[in-house]
Design a protein that fits this description.
The chain has twelve helices and 16 strands. It is an alpha/beta fold. It folds into three domains: about 160 residues, Rossmann fold, CATH 3.40.50; about 120 residues, Dihydrodipicolinate Reductase, domain 2, CATH 3.30.360.10; about 80 residues, ACT domain (Alpha-Beta Plaits). The radius of gyration is 25 Å and the shape is elongated. It binds NADPH dihydro-nicotinamide-adenine-dinucleotide phosphate (NDP) and L-homoserine.
Length: about 400
């Protein structure tokens, strides 16, 4: 049986776990792929680095990644180095030469994924990157394969473990509350006084999460996709509200399947390597069968909707003067921009009055214009916070 030969680029947190799993699962992988998987070479930056007891021949290490990629005995390139360059050059070279690529490099895919897809098409090669999206969580394959008979309408994810950890600790307000808050403030995630938002979210039966959202929007001129990343309040009853610690989760809504949630570890050497191994098996099988995976769906051709046109709901906290007519003036600004108010709540009195307003859905540009105009009002001392509200009626 002719083996499938890998060039492994990078042998750090993820790469070393890829090596370990390839060794430990060798028999199973051979059975699944239909041929043994062999490492042809491993490119690293520092040959002298102590790599512990990695189950691999030290003679495989090289600092010449490009030379390794170009070798004739390499079928598949696995890139776990990260960064834009030189990773892009290596991967474009591999794909154009017809070598399949498995990568965990989210930065490169976000920056120039199109160039990689073009090179894959040009070379007739596979480009797989399950590990680059929510770490260990199988997401791309379920979306691309299991759900390809369905129409996906919305994907909402918690894909930043660090931020989720902070927000979860803040929400839980246990012993780590102050620590999480200080850390969040130092990192620039939190408002100067974020306690008000957290308390307000609780009062509304919500919790705050950093969400990435891609949704399909139908309009008179056809369908488009809205894509955004921002903190948002979500109801505590929403499945994403229960995602705590550093976990990742992705909530998928499809027309026929309904609501699905994928949950798991979004980072870490072994979890991420698990996703890389899954891709290695998939491209290995494809190579033996002489096929490549299906190209992207028609979703890829849908235009991205400008953020200003995306319909969202806002939760706005205003520090206001507490006297007659203030609410009327504030409400007038919302009315002027055709933004409908869902609820209004006041806390405090006199110099400490805070108005908390939650809107119905309105185009983001109208909401932003409303906030700008409120800021200019004499009666508004300051805008304490503006948060979007997601995941409810
Ligand atoms: P590390 O920093 O731990 O490892 C990077 C590896 O790349 C090291 O082995 C390093 O060599 C090697 N390297 C760096 N520059 C070069 C170069 N110019 N030529 C050859 N080799 C080079 O990174 P991670 O393993 O954490 O991450 C790798 C990728 O996986 C990134 O794209 C990251 O975004 C992605 N990822 C990581 C996750 C995680 O939890 N760690 C989760 C999901 C994705 P040396 O060993 O000699 O220093
Ligand atoms: N998805 C990851 C996280 C990013 O949980 O933060 C790891 O690079």
């Amino acid at each position: 049986m002719k083996p499938v030969r890998l060039a492994l680029l990078g042998c750090g947190t993820v790469g070393s776990e890829v090596v370990r799993l390839l060794h430990e699962q060798a028999d199973d992988l051979t059975a699944r792929v239909g041929a043994p998987i062999e490492i042809a070479g491993i490119a690293v930056r520092r040959l002298a680095r102590d790599r512990g007891s990695l189950p691999v021949d030290p003679a495989l290490f090289t600092t010449d990644a490009l030379g390794l990629v170009k070798r004739d005995d390499v079928d598949v390139v696995v890139e776990v180095v990260g960064g834009i360059e030189p990773a892009r050059t290596w991967l474009v070279e591999a794909l154009r030469a017809g070598k399949s690529v498995v990568t965990a490099n989210k930065a490169l895919l976000a920056e120039d994924g199109g160039a990689l897809h073009d090179a894959a098409t040009e070379g007739g090669a596979d480009l797989y990157y399950e590990a680059a999206v929510a770490g260990a969580i199988p997401l791309l394959r379920p979306l691309r394969e299991s759900l390809h008979g369905d129409k996906i309408t919305r994907v909402t994810g918690i894909v930043n473990g660090t931020t989720n950890y902070i927000l979860s600790s803040m929400d839980a307000s246990g012993a780590s509350f102050t620590e999480a808050l200080e850390e969040a403030t130092a990192l620039g995630y939190a408002e100067a006084d974020p306690t008000a938002d957290v308390a307000s979210a609780k009062a509304m039966g919500c919790t705050i999460k950093l969400l990435c959202i891609a949704s399909r929007v139908s309009g008179p001129s056809g369908d488009s996709i809205s894509v955004r990343v921002h903190p948002a309040m979500i109801p505590r009853t929403h499945p994403l509200a229960s995602v705590g610690d550093a976990f990742n989760a992705v909530f998928v809504e499809a027309e026929a399947a309904g609501q699905l949630m994928f949950y798991g570890r979004g980072a870490g050497g072994a979890p991420t390597a698990s996703a890389v191994l899954g891709d290695i098996v998939a491209v290995g099988r494809n190579r033996l069968a002489g096929v490549r995976s299906a190209s992207e769906s028609v979703y890829a051709d849908l235009p991205v909707r400008p953020m200003g046109e995306v319909v969202t709901r806002y939760h706005i906290s205003l520090d206001v003067a507490d006297r007659a007519g203030v609410l009327a003036a504030v409400a007038g600004v919302f009315a002027k921009h055709d933004v409908s108010i869902a609820t209004v709540r006041q806390s405090g009195r006199g110099d400490d009055a805070i108005l908390v307003i939650v809107t119905h859905g309105a185009p983001d540009a109208a909401l932003a214009a409303t906030v700008r105009e409120l800021q200019a009002l004499d009666i508004v001392r300051s805008i304490a916070s503006v948060l979007r509200v997601e995941g409810g009626a």
